[in-house]
Write a structure and sequence with these properties.
Elements (H helix, E strand, L loop, with lengths): L1 E9 L2 H35 L28 H19 L16 E5 L3 E6 L2 E7 L4 E7 L13 E7 L2 E9 L8 H9 L4 H7 E6 L5 E3 L3 E2 L3 H23 L5 H35 L2 E5 L3 H4 L6 E2 L5 E2 L3 H13 L2 H14 L4 E4 L24 E3 L6 E3 H20 L4 E2 H34 L1
Parallel strand pairs: 8-11, 11-14
Antiparallel strand pairs: 1-5, 1-7, 2-6, 3-4, 4-5, 6-7, 8-9, 9-10, 12-13, 14-17, 15-16
Bound molecules: zinc ion.
The site of zinc ion has 8 residues, from loops.
Length: 454
């Protein structure tokens, strides 16, 4: 399984300056490739015969000119890697995986991809030191906060160095040796469908995700402790104050930069706190549960803005946008999606299945008799069935409903369960479909390149 590690690193002022220059050069190449592509496409559309396309390549030497003398100070590998990133992004676009690569700025383009010609990793006791630059022309060395026991013994072939207002980060990905079989979930499903209802009930751990209680299983619930909640609330207050301050300050001034750094550090602390909570929660669930079932929440659709409303005369009416904005913030605040991502890979490592069911009316259904009505849910936390009088906590009731639905689906029609792996397969099928359409585009480009070479 492809795993990644991202940690803070601490370059000194000299190395930080050099790295910033490299980042700037890499971004210049990336943006120049975007501009070139745009120009060539417009040219081809205007002056070339139909179905003639602009070439896509990794060349970058044309940008080294008298107008850009600073590019000579940057190692060519950094610029080559930047052109390669652009090329890969463009091929992904042609395959239908992403949008066309667009220009980057200092916010989303503050990184470099460093391949192993330009870095060496060395350990001084338990401290990791990364040396940058070639052996002939070293750029300097920096300390990285890595844990020796968790770093793979084979050094990575390439690393990413990112910069933001909170500091520097160094990351890389590696294959951890855990094999994931695509058919595992189907095999688990086949085995589960042979079991009896009582056995299934003991095996399945249902999970209900919500705003008031982030995670509720059939037995326990997981939530941030009071200390953490206080910290989050306090930091939000500080953040608002700093943002107001930032708006008043002159852009580019030293004070403006300082406030930006303070905001970035506050946000980083929040992210760390939430990540820690999700890692602990998912670890506890993955190590105890045998089969996990949860709702297939579409958070992107759930947090859409409400549409504007007009009456017959064209007068604008209230559409509840402010209330919806508050709900959206609450939904996205903790990052329920992170829970799904973390739990998926932890379960996959332990070879345990994870399934998803439709979330339709799970909070209004009675787990005891199956009666569905919106009035069943009296308040956010209280549930009382209008038909049989079953009383329970609303989130706990929803968790039981999820288990009941999963059992029904496994015993009666096992094929209807949505496995995470199946979702991935479906997405891939969609990509392949767009690939066949766009393969003509690629073929036309190849012809053009061949002609160019000849
Ligand atoms: Zn009932």
């Amino acid at each position: 399984m492809l795993t990644g590690i991202s940690q803070k690193c601490f370059p000194g002022p000299v190395l930080a300056n050099t790295l910033s220059q490299w980042i700037g050069c890499a971004r210049l190449i990336y943006n120049a490739k975007c501009d070139e592509d745009r120009y060539l496409r417009a040219f081809a559309q205007k002056y070339l015969p139909v179905q003639t396309y602009a070439p896509i390549d990794k060349q970058y030497s044309q940008y080294k000119s008298e107008l850009t003398p600073w590019l000579k100070d940057c190692p060519s590998q950094i610029m080559r890697n930047s052109a390669t990133i652009w090329y890969k992004a463009y091929i992904d676009f042609l395959k239908g995986k992403s949008a066309r690569p667009h220009r980057k700025n200092k916010v989303n383009g503050n990184y470099i991809w460093v391949t192993n010609e330009l870095f060496r990793i060395r350990w001084e006791g338990s401290t990791c030191v990364v040396e940058l630059g070639t052996i002939k022309n070293p750029a300097g060395s920096m300390r990285v906060k890595w844990n020796k026991s968790r770093i793979p013994k084979i050094p990575p072939k390439s690393i990413w160095i990112k910069k933001n207002h909170a500091g520097w980060k160094l990351s890389f990905s590696y294959e951890d040796g855990n094999l994931i079989n695509q058919d595992d979930n189907d095999q688990h499903l086949k085995h589960l469908s042979t079991l009896s209802a009582d056995e299934l009930e003991g095996l399945i751990t249902p999970i209900d995700r919500g705003i008031a209680k982030p995670i509720q299983t059939d037995q326990t619930s997981f939530d941030l402790d009071i200390k953490a909640k206080c910290r989050l609330a306090y930091r939000e207050k500080c953040l608002k104050r700093f943002q107001r301050k930032l708006a008043r300050q002159n852009k580019g001034s030293n004070q403006h930069k300082k406030t930006q750094q303070k905001i970035a550090k506050l946000k980083e602390k929040d992210t760390n706190l939430k990540n820690d909570f999700w890692h602990k929660t998912t670890h506890a669930i993955a190590s105890n549960a045998k089969v996990v079932v949860m709702e297939d929440l579409k958070l992107k659709n759930m947090t859409l803005r409400p549409k504007p409303r007009q009456d017959v005369n064209g007068k604008w009416l209230k559409n509840g946008a402010k209330a919806k904005a508050g709900l959206n913030k609450a939904l996205l605040h903790l990052g329920l999606n992170k829970f799904e991502v973390y739990l998926s890979y932890k379960m996959a490592k332990l070879n345990k299945p994870i399934f998803k069911i439709s979330p339709y009316q799970t909070s209004q259904e009675c787990a005891h008799c199956g009666y569905i009505h919106p009035d069943n849910r009296k308040t956010q936390s209280d549930f009382e069935c209008l038909s049989c009088g079953h009383v329970d906590n609303a989130d706990h009731n929803a968790a039981l409903v999820i288990r009941k639905r999963a059992m029904d689906l496994i015993l009666n029609s096992g094929t209807e369960l949505v496995g995470t792996q199946k979702n991935v397969l479906r997405l891939r099928a969609n990509h392949n479909r767009s690939k066949t359409v766009k393969s003509q585009y690629l073929a036309a480009n190849d012809d053009l390149l061949k002609k160019k070479v000849a």
